[in-house]
Design a protein that fits this description.
The complex is a heterodimer of chains A (about 475) and B (about 290).
Chain A (H helix, E strand, L loop, with lengths): L2 H13 L3 H20 L5 H34 L4 H26 L4 H21 L6 H8 L2 H6 L1 H18 L2 H11 L8 H8 L5 H7 L23 H9 L7 H22 L5 H28 L1 H8 L7 H14 L2 H16 L5 H27 L8 H20 L5 H23 L10 H4 L5
Helix pairs in contact in A: 1-4, 2-3, 3-4, 3-5, 3-9, 4-5, 5-8, 6-13, 12-16, 13-14, 13-17, 14-17, 14-18, 17-18, 18-19, 18-20, 19-20
Chain B lengths: L4 E12 L2 E12 L3 E6 L5 H9 L6 E6 L2 E2 L5 H4 L2 E4 L11 H9 L7 H10 L13 H14 L4 E5 L7 H17 L3 E5 L3 H7 L2 E6 L2 E7 H5 L1 E7 L2 H5 L6 E6 L5 E6 H4 L2 H4 L5 E5 L3 H6 L4
Chain lengths: ~475, ~290
């Protein structure tokens, strides 16, 4: 197999390392198809450009993070030819996910420079987001204060500058594999019991410690001192006990909640200041979407920890005080609700804030609530469906169907009409029934701990 | 040691896909024995140990530990067991101290005095996050965790591979000390036969999914090896009643493992056309004959 084909395969592996990404991408395509079917033909190019931009930006952010991590490890291992293959994978990304949508958008009537500008900017934004974080997004509403963003983007000079800036970011991006490999190659392994290494590192001016920390090589030191009162008798603290044993947290991170509320309020304020009373809905939609993503992240985090701590689960299962299967299941169900509290609190406080100030009409508040509830139901249901199955994998057809059905239900409630409407009622049923079925399935199935157990053989012995 | 079996396995079978890891395996371990489990890489040692503990289901057969079926161990049975897995870094997000505190909540018998003493003697960095410790420190910590629950049955899956010689000796010494103080049954999987020889009363060699041979360590020490060379037809039909193992090696010769007492009768068993070279290798070389 030649290097170009290898690079294409590697790109696939880098991007779709978790089925969730394919599911989200399918949702983007579904929404695009719905929009294309309902919109006037002359606007189809713009839709392709915008949706292609979402896709390119999101995947560019993912790819950047993955390239940095893989190249860092490749540098540590001294893998030959790794940087070149990574650069070829990056080139494939640009061809398939940036240039192809731009060409399709142009064929459907969008101006070529505009199409390239949108796709290039989205890709560059994804790269910058993964490299420097999202603090600069606050600039977007401020820039939009003097003139709407769409008007800014319509100016040829702005398009030219945007294309040039995006090209510069993308050009710099191609240097990432080599620089991450170099950092990995000279980064020492940091062991707590290797005092001599630490002494030499403290004198090292090259900042290798921070480079290693940025690449995820050092653990979170905040996990070092858990202060949990373990009380196995009452069972009330069982979700927290399981969380400590499996390496996640069910406590509300108040600092993160306050930070989230602050950022969300800032986004709404900036949007309100730049657009006046009506169009701040877009700011609210961004805040709601961010809360939904945070919900998904927390639940996926729990699932990942459950699937990656089989050894710890084995050790705990062998202990005499390990609770009964029923208690463990209850604790895991409680966990799915507990981990969502922070994100829901951010959304709720922001919504109340916007509603009290009269910035938001009822329609948007209901839509936001439906989106948050739909996300919560869909991903809780998906988690239960995964844990109920005989063979534990992160995603199955049933979990994908769960997410798609609940999403369809939420879309029906939001777009079709208010509750007396029969279609909206169908939407509510679609939102609620699949997660409820998944919960029943989980309750009835034998407990799978450790999660790599095939329970068919265990089932006859379970009491 | 008593004759009371504390671990039994009968007709154990476990396949991964089409590949059988365990195939009609039988095993009996008496209370108070220290058994060294040997086998080539991928022979199924970890699978066997996990099956004995009920951590993985088997396709067929039955195993019991401390008198109870492995998949349905009661609380009292679990309080008598401890396990040191092969991968050392368990609970890598906790400090050593926090991990011991956490595990002790699940064991009413957890001996904190012993845990602190052992950690001090083995110079463990209990205040460091486990994930940042070297594999050797992680493994020492795992052994401290397992021993501090004061088990009656201790199952160790290659626990000393990542330890330096001094710590390996210290671990074996500690296990010997425990054996001298109380009745403890140890199943110790390792490739380091020298260490096992110091600790164990018996060796069990796992090959082709079964226990190929299991006997006292002195019995393995008295084994000799004979290389037979000659016509293939004669070698093919050669019968040596006293042989423990007859193996055909790569160049068509036969390798025979038998007790030293059996060598005296060997000349009567083999025809004059067959050339025999007797060898008295060390215990590591002898046991490796079953793993080839």
């Amino acid at each position: 197999m030649d290097a170009v084909s290898i690079a294409l395969r590697i790109l696939g592996r880098l991007l779709f390392y978790r089925p969730l990404i394919a599911v989200l991408l399918m949702l983007v395509y579904l929404v695009t198809a719905l929009l294309l079917a309902t919109i006037e033909p002359d606007k189809r190019g713009i839709i392709i450009g915008i949706m292609g931009g979402f896709q390119a930006g999101g995947l560019a952010a993912l790819l950047t993070e993955r390239i940095r991590r893989f190249s860092f490890t490749a540098g540590q291992l001294g893998l030959p030819d790794h940087a070149r293959i990574m650069r070829l994978a990056q080139a494939w990304f640009l061809v398939l996910l940036m240039m192809s949508p731009a060409i399709v958008a142009t064929l459907l009537g969008m101006q070529p420079l505009r199409a390239v500008a949108i796709l290039g900017m989205a890709t560059a934004a994804g790269i910058v987001l993964a490299t420097y974080g999202g603090w600069w997004l606050i600039l977007v509403p401020l820039i939009g204060r003097s003139m709407p963003l769409s008007d800014w983007l319509a100016l040829p000079a702005v398009q030219a500058v945007a294309v040039a800036a995006s090209a510069w970011v993308i050009w710099r991006w191609f240097r990432l594999p080599r620089s991450a490999e170099r950092t990995g190659g000279i980064s020492p392994s940091l062991l707590a019991d290797a005092a001599h290494e630490r002494a030499s590192l403290s004198e090292d001016p090259a900042g290798l410690l921070s480079a290693a920390a940025q690449s995820g090589q050092t653990p979170n030191s905040s996990a070092a001192a858990p202060r949990l009162q373990i009380n196995l008798e009452t069972g009330r603290s069982l979700p927290s006990v399981l969380a400590l044993g499996f390496g996640y947290s069910v406590a509300i991170a108040w600092r993160a909640v306050l930070y989230g509320i602050g950022v969300a309020a800032l986004v709404l304020l900036a949007w309100h200041a730049s657009h006046g009373r009506r169009p701040e809905a877009l700011g609210y939609i961004i805040v709601t979407a961010a809360c939904c993503l945070a919900l998904v992240g927390r639940m996926q985090g729990v699932l990942q920890r459950l699937t990656r701590t089989s050894m710890e689960q084995s050790l705990l299962r062998l202990s005499p005080q390990w609770p009964e299967a029923r208690q463990i299941k209850q604790a895991i169900v409680q966990t799915t609700f507990l981990v969502q509290r922070g994100s829901i609190a951010v959304w709720a406080v922001t919504s109340i804030f916007a509603a009290l100030l009269g910035w938001m009409d009822k329609r948007y508040l209901i839509a936001g609530g439906v989106a948050v509830a739909g996300t919560s139901f869909a991903f809780s249901g998906a988690l239960f469906a995964v844990l109920a199955r005989r063979r534990i994998r992160e995603w199955h057809l049933s979990t994908i169907a769960e997410v798609i059905l609940v999403s369809a239900g939420a879309l029906a409630v939001v777009f079709v009409g208010s509750l007396p409407n029969l279609h909206a009622l169908y939407g509510v049923v679609l939102m609620v029934v699949p997660p409820a079925l998944a919960l029943c399935w989980y309750a009835m199935a034998p407990l799978r701990l450790p999660l790599d157990v095939d329970p068919r053989a265990v089932q006859p012995f379970e009491r | 040691m008593t004759d009371d079996p504390i671990i039994t396995a009968r007709g154990l079978r476990k396949t991964f896909g089409r590949r059988p890891a365990l195939d009609q395996l039988d095993l009996t371990i008496e209370r108070g024995a220290a058994v060294g489990l040997l086998g080539a890489n991928g022979a199924g040692k970890t699978t066997l140990l996990k099956s004995l503990l009920g951590l993985i289901p088997v396709d067929a057969g039955r195993c019991t530990i401390v008198g109870e079926p492995s998949p349905m161990l009661s609380r009292s049975a679990r309080s008598r067991l401890s396990y040191v897995p092969q991968s050392p870094g368990q609970f890598p997000w906790l400090t050593g101290q926090a991990m011991l505190r956490y595990v002790s909540a699940f064991y009413p018998t957890f001996d904190w005095t012993y845990a602190r003493d052992l950690a001090a003697r083995w110079k463990l960095a209990l205040r460091s996050v486990i994930g940042t410790l070297s594999p050797g420190q992680q493994q020492r910590l795992s052994i401290v965790r397992a021993l501090s629950t004061r088990p009656e049955v201790l199952i160790l899956d290659e626990p000393i591979a990542s330890l330096d010689p001094a710590t390996r000796i210290a671990v074996i010494d500690e296990l010997l000390r425990e054996r001298s103080r109380r009745v403890i049954t140890i199943v110790f999987s390792s490739h380091l036969i020298g260490d096992l020889e110091r600790l164990c009363s018996k060796f069990a060699i796992l090959a082709d999914g079964r226990i190929a041979v299991m006997d006292d360590v002195p019995w393995f020490r008295q084994l000799a090896r004979v290389n037979l060379d000659g016509d293939e037809n004669i070698l093919e039909h050669l019968a040596i009643p006293s042989a423990t193992l007859i193996r055909k090696n790569g160049n068509g010769r036969r390798v025979v493992v038998l007790g030293r007492a059996g060598i005296e009768h060997l000349s009567a068993a083999i025809p004059p056309q067959v050339r025999a070279v007797v060898d008295e290798p060390d215990i590591e070389t002898i046991t490796s004959e079953w793993m080839q």
